[in-house]
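Worked example 2:
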Amino acid sequence: MKIAFLSTHLTGTGHLVRTLALARAGISRDHEVLVINGGRALAHLDQTGPRIEQLPPLTVSADLDYKTLRRPDGAVADEAYLKARIAQMVGVLQAFRPDILVTETYPLGRRNLATEYQAALAATPAIRVSSVRDIPEPKPKRLAETEAVLADYTALLVHGDADVIPLSVSWPFEGLDRKIHATGYVAESDLATPIPGGVLVSVGGGIHGRRLLPIAAEAARLSSQPWRILVGGADAASTELPGAENLTVEPVRPDYRALLAGAEVSISLCGYNTALDLAACETPAILVPMAEKGEQEQTIRARHFSRFEGVVRMDLETLTPEALADQVHRMAGQRRPKIPLATNGAARSIEILEEL
């Protein structure tokens, strides 16, 4: 079977991480796999296995203006740039001739890229499948419109655990039950050998969570533990943070999961992959969900995950360095039970595609 995945991450890295995991699961079952990446190339991710076709990348500004698509250099992506993306994508799909085309996020999201997703769908007679995380960003006004697009799809893969967070929490579809498949979470392998450390602060590899960093740096000055802050990608925020003798600030690291497993306390956003990494370890966790521009996904996830022992949610709008330092002091030195989640989502997704 030939499977093509079309994914464009505009801010964080989670969409591409999940897509690559699905692609590797397909290869492990002897399928021919193509990943078309419309977001930035991310050198720190494990990209072994699948063939990856890199389109002229898109991103958005740090203030999350999704209406204005940009090139990696910050310039606005003009019509010629967008047409070049579509032409390359269509050519690749027509040459590959997939049996199944998986559109990651679309049509539940990426409506600003609807033109190119529709071009991809028109370029091949392949079976149409949508692939979304556990909590696609709620868009109540687009529910009927999205249902209409999904009418031409064979399946909707929801990469979550319905016993923890059902899709209906964010997208209460009606009449699509036969198309919706909860696959379980798409998780990486077990955590690496722990690297012992103090307090670990991470905002992922994207552009989210910048407002948390100075608060965490100030909290470190009030704490007796060693603190490590990982800033996303090539972000320059590290040069703007107040220093402290017990504080280390560095770019995001490929051994993040080993650092997490050995940390005394984790402070992080609550994106999809971060939540999975936390679920797999015993490190006490403080979740500070990203809620800029009214986004609800991480807040919903943090609300559900904070029901588990040793996991605390703190909202950025009311967070102070003093409160953060105090919460770290109360949690340091403890361990917590791992969070029970269905995490066989990659393998199960490929099984579903085979059944289709």
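Residues 234-238 have pLDDT under 50 and may be disordered. The longest helix spans residues 79-96.
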